[in-house]
Design goal:
About 45% of the residues lie in helices and about 15% in strands. With about 350 residues, it is an alpha/beta fold. The longest helix has 21 residues.
């Protein structure tokens, strides 16, 4: 994590930036007790949390997707629920169900696991489309409809979903509307040689002690997360940086290989995530580099490529890289961008 830097803004803004850095460092250090060498992924997850955004972790089995989600949830405390998605899972298994209480002589509502601060939807693509759609309202509007009336979910409310992109049997691809609800999609990838050695040595040295995840204690609270999120929203975004975000989103729609580009919701997601990343890195102003870092994780899953592009083996990652490379970058010191401190 970087330390706060002078950006010409108020001292109060710098204090807010320091509070976000301290919160992020505390949570990241706690997660590192369980997950080895995924600092970049943890930073992206923290940025999403500061936006109160949902995250889809997509990768092959065995790289720590579920462990990372559980470690992050445990680190911030609050109410945590896990939904193991299967083909026989029903919408009522997620949102809850009304039942007649014979003793009370009236109907009661039994809340489902979605009524939590952090919800882990494990192997989300194994749930049927009908069940997946039960999450749409919850993820976007933070409510669940009960007998036609919206019931608000607690704050913060975060969905961390995992998905195995390799296995196709018994799975149901997420529809575009569902994917668009996720602020960020990320992949963990295999550890490098040093990290994999560290994983094995950590397991050797643990001996008879329980796994680190079983003993992981919260180092923050939901209230602290909300306070950090409020501070992150005070990070300055200059006119030029906002225009840069909008230009990237528009360029995805005009790209010849794209059938459906990033929506205004995607542009807003990139804007908010870049602002949160700047706060995590100790700055009270957003820079174009923050936008570049988050362009692929925020936009790739929102693009639908043209059939010809898919046949040629092009991927959304390639398209977003081309778009970012072809979009003029605001010049530091221009209107709306902070100048470096004197001296």
């Amino acid at each position: 994590m970087q330390t706060p830097t002078q950006t010409g803004l108020s001292t109060a803004a710098d204090r807010d930036a320091r509070s976000v850095v301290e919160f992020g460092a505390r949570v990241a250090e706690n997660v590192a007790r369980v997950i080895v060498g995924k600092d970049a992924a943890v930073e992206l997850l923290l940025a999403a949390m500061l936006c109160e955004g949902h995250v889809l972790i997509e990768d092959v089995p065995g790289v720590g997707k579920t462990s990372l989600a559980r470690a992050l949830a445990r680190s911030i405390g609050g109410v945590f629920r896990r939904i193991q998605c299967t083909p026989d899972l029903l919408p009522s298994d997620i949102g809850g169900v009304s039942f007649f209480d014979q003793k009370a002589g009236d109907f009661r509502f039994r809340a489902g696991p979605v009524f939590a601060n952090v919800v882990l939807a494990d192997e989300i693509n194994r749930a049927t489309p009908r069940t997946q759609s039960a999450l749409l309202e919850a993820m976007e509007e933070r409510t669940v409809s009960v007998e036609g009336e919206p019931v608000p979910l607690p704050r913060p409310f975060l969905v961390l979903a995992t998905e195995n992109p390799i296995e196709l049997e018994g799975t149901f691809p997420l529809p575009e509307a569902q994917l668009d609800r996720f602020l960020i999609r990320l992949a963990l990838g295999y550890p490098d040689a040093t990290e994999e050695d560290a994983i094995l040595l950590r397991e050797r040295d643990r001996g008879a002690d329980p796994p680190p995840l079983d003993t992981l204690a919260p180092v923050a609270s939901p209230a602290e997360l909300l306070a950090a999120a409020d501070a992150a929203r005070l990070v300055h975004v200059g006119d030029d940086v906002a225009h840069y975000v909008a230009s990237i989103a528009r360029a995805t729609r005009a790209h010849e290989a794209v059938e459906l580009g990033a929506s205004p919701r995607g542009a807003l997601a990139l804007f908010r995530a870049a602002r949160a990343l700047a706060a995590l890195r100790g700055r009270s102003a957003t820079l174009p580099d923050d936008v570049k870092t988050l362009a692929a994780p925020v936009l790739c899953h929102r693009l639908i490529l043209a059939p010809e592009a898919r046949l040629r083996g092009r991927t959304p990652v390639d398209i977003v890289a081309e778009v970012v490379a072809g979009t003029p970058v605001p010049v530091e010191g221009a209107a709306g961008l902070p100048r470096p401190p004197d001296g």
